[in-house]
Amino acid sequence: MIGRLPDLIRRLRRDRRGTAAAEFALTIPIFLAIMFGVIQVGILFFANAGLQNALGDGAREATLWPRKSETELAAEITASRFGVKPDNMADPVFTYGAAGGQDYVEISVSYTADLNFLLFQVPGITLQHSRRAYLP
């Protein structure tokens, strides 16, 4: 029995069947982790673009005459957002001021993006943007 063991080991070493399946089994988890990471970053960039678009539309509406109320501006921001979950987006904050003799409104919006990496959860990432619009 012991004399046959080295022969068996030599035969198994020369046998290359199944090596591709073993290599695939070792590399596919890494590939999938990278792929899901890229997808999550893409979702984050999409939410960021939607948040900036909504904020830009709200700031543009604030510069039009007659002046819009905060409720109307918030409705415009809500209507023009995309790529965000409504529950994760905070209500816009309006701050009024003056600079150089010109009145302005600063609109701030924040959004918490939930990231999901299949096997584990990571804390949400908060995106915050603000835009200043000079009033007519």
3D architecture notes:
A 3-stranded antiparallel sheet has the order 1-2-3, with helices on one face. It has one domain. The model has no long low-confidence stretch (mean pLDDT 92). The chain is of the alpha+beta class and 136 residues long. 49% of the residues lie in helices and 28% in strands. The protein has helices at residues 4-14, 19-62, 70-80, and strands at 93-99, 102-117, 120-134. It contains 3 helices and 3 strands, in the order H-H-H-E-E-E. The N and C termini lie far apart (96 Å).
Can you give me a brief rundown of this structure?
Helix content is 49%, strand content 28%. The chain is built from three helices and three strands, in the order αααβββ. The radius of gyration is 28 Å and the shape is rod-shaped.
Element layout with pairings:
Layout: H1 4-14, H2 19-62, H3 70-80, E1 93-99, E2 102-117, E3 120-134
Antiparallel strand pairs: 1-2, 2-3
Helix pairs in contact: 2-3
Provide keyphrases for this structure.
rod-shaped, 3-stranded antiparallel sheet, 3 strands, 3 helices, 28% strand, 136 residues, alpha+beta
Average pLDDT, rounded to a whole number, is 92
Count of DSSP H/I helices: 3
Number of domains: 1
- Rounded to the nearest angstrom, the radius of gyration is 28 Å
How helical, in percent, are the residues?
A: 40-55%
